[in-house]
Amino acid sequence: MRVLLVGTGGREHALALGLAADPAVTQLIAAPGNPGMAAIADLREVVPTDPASVAALAVEAGADLVVIGPEAPLVAGVADAVRAKGIACFGPSAQAARLEGSKAFAKDVMAAAGVPTARSYTCATPVESDRALAEFGPPYVVKDDGLAAGKGVVVTGDLAEARAHAAACGRVVIEEYLAGPEVSLFVVTDGEAAVPLLPAQDFKRAGDGDTGPNTGGMGAYAPLPWAPPGLVDEVMASVAHPTLAEMRRRGTPFAGLLYIGLAMTAAGPRVVEFNARFGDPETQVVLALLETPLAGLLHAAATGTLGAHPPLRWRPGSAVTVVLASQGYPETARTGDVIVGAERPGIIHAGTARRPADDAVVSSGGRVLCATATGPDLAAARDAAYALLTGVELTGAQHRSDIALSAVRGEVGLPG
Ligand code: AMP
Ligand code: GLY
Fold it and tell me: Which residues pair with 40 in a beta bridge?
C-alpha cells in the first residue's frame, strides 16, 4: 500500500512512525513532512490546505490511501478532493469537519443527538454575550466559533477579559464551566462502525500546575490509571454513536477520527469539544502503544469496512510525551535556533526545519519536539520521557516538569 500523509507536526511524525511500521505499507510519502520523518518517508512539498494540489499529488504518487493530519485541510475540503479522484482518504468531508470547524455547529449536533455537554449560547453581539456571561457566572468560558489552532478559548474568572475575548472574536460560544479532569478519547470511524483508541490526557496550559495561557498541548500520557472502568463504553454509547447517527441523519456522515474531549464532572462525562482529527500530542502516546498495524486500520475506516476489522491490540504498559516549546510560546515563538540531540528514537519532531546553509536541524515553530517514551508503568514511562528530553539542547526552550505527575502519584481526583 502506498500512503500519502499530509501535514508537518508532531502528530504527523507519530502517524508516520505508525504507518511506516505497518508491513503492508510499501511506500510512505509525507507532504510537506518535517526533518524527523525524512528517515522513514519521502518528503514532498505541497500546500496542505489546497485541495487541488493535494489531490494532484495523491494521483501522481499513485497513493492507495491518503491520511490527513491537521484540521485546516479537512475544513478546506481536501478529503473531498482526494476522494473525488477515486482515492481512499482517511479524514472527514468539509461538511463533516464542521464538528471541529464551528463550535456552534458542534453544539447544535450535540443538542440534536442528546449528547451530554456544557449548556451554552451562541452569541453574535455584546448584548447577547453579556447576557450569557451573567447567566453562567464565573469562571467564564468564551470560545471563538471558528478554527483558532487551540487558542480560541478563554477560561477566566475575569469578566473584563471574557468580554474582551467575545468582542475580539465576533461570533462566540459562551458556556457553563465544566469542573473535573479532562480526557481525550479518539474514535476511528467509517461513519457507521466506530472503534475507540486508548483514552489519554493532554496538558493544555503552558505552565506547571495548569497555570498560564492555553497552548496546543504541552504533554500527554496514556492510558489513564484513574479512569473509571466502563468509561470508554459509556462515552461510545452516550457520545460517539449518537453523534455519528446524527451526522448520518443530516446526510453528512462523519468518517475519519472523531476526537472527543471530555471533562469528568460530578454529573458524569461531559463533552468539552469535538475535533475532526487526531489530537496533538495525545497521538504520540496513543500510537506508541498501538500494536495493530495502523495503515490497515485507517484504510478500513476510509473504505467503509471498519466493521470487519479485527479488534485492536495494545502493548502493555504506558506512554508519556513531554513537549519542548520554544522561548516565548504561545504568545510569540523564537525560531531558527540549532537543536542538539533531535535525531534520536523517541524524539518526535513538530516545529523543526533543516537550515539550507548547513543542513542543521533548527526550531521553526512554537512546539518544537516531543520526547516520547513507553514503560511498564506510568512512572517508568514518565522517567524515560524526561530522561530523553534531558539529551536535547535548544536555546531558551521551555517544557512542563509535571506531565503525568499527579497520575503517577494517584492524585487525579474525580469530583462527586
Ligand atoms: P477547546 O478548544 O474547546 O478544547 O477548549 C480548550 C480548553 O479550554 C479545554 O481543553 C479545556 O481545558 C478548556 N475548556 C473548554 N471548555 C470548557 C468548559 N466548558 N469548562 C471548563 N474548561 C473548558
Ligand atoms: N491536544 C489538543 C488538540 O489536539 O486539540
Answer: none
